[in-house]
Specification:
mainly alpha; minor pseudopilin epsh fold; 2 domains
């Protein structure tokens, strides 16, 4: 999370290395979700920072210290930055070491994916499902509503799937579970593991 720092006092929309992710996320969804929705949170955050006392702070610090509209926009910038960054059309596979960590805490990679998807499907309303590491290095799956994220709980966020309807509705309509299952083939595990 330390790489989410303002450039000359402003956050900017990250470039994507992909235009679509097969049948999981269409180019139309990315155009709206990344190009308009994510950009709006960045623009709002940049407008709110001057005079807030948080100018120059990294994104995670702003999320930890802010509240209200500033928190909502900073949280959503962090959530979306991590979400879009973790995918690739040519993803790195999971390392044996990280797979062992998942097996240690969830039983197996497959059991982790099942729990992660179930938490994503069962989150009522809009929000995010996350894989994080706690202070002792244990991996945990958590649900967060709206702009919330594991940073506010003192966890280190590693992987997230967006379960707001705008993330999947153009491609999957009301089939949230199908979109969550489709995302695994595009997770770049090197990105996820480097967040540890």
């Amino acid at each position: 999370m330390n790489n989410y720092l303002p450039d000359n006092g402003q956050f900017s929309l990250p470039e994507l290395s992909y235009q679509e992710l097969g049948t999981a996320i269409s180019a139309e969804t990315i155009s709206f979700h990344h190009g308009k929705h994510f950009k709006a949170y960045i623009d709002n955050l940049n407008r709110m920072l001057p005079g807030s006392g948080m100018e120059g702070l990294g994104l995670a610090d702003i999320v930890r210290k802010s509240e209200g509209a500033l928190f909502n926009n900073a949280g959503q910038v962090l959530n979306h930055a991590m979400y879009f960054e973790q995918f690739s059309v040519t993803p790195s596979p999971i390392s044996p070491e990280f797979e062992q960590m998942l097996a240690r805490d969830f039983g197996s990679l497959e059991a982790f994916e099942k729990e992660f998807e179930q938490k994503g499907v069962s989150l009522f309303g809009s929000g995010w499902v996350w894989l994080s590491s706690d202070a002792q290095g244990k991996l945990v799956v958590t649900q967060h509503r709206n702009a919330e994220n594991p940073v506010t709980m003192g966890l280190c966020p590693l992987l997230t799937f967006d379960v707001w309807e705008h993330a999947y509705y153009l491609d999957f309509q009301n089939r949230r579970a199908d979109q969550l299952a489709a995302l695994w083939q595009y997770v770049d595990w090197r990105v996820v593991e480097n967040r540890l």
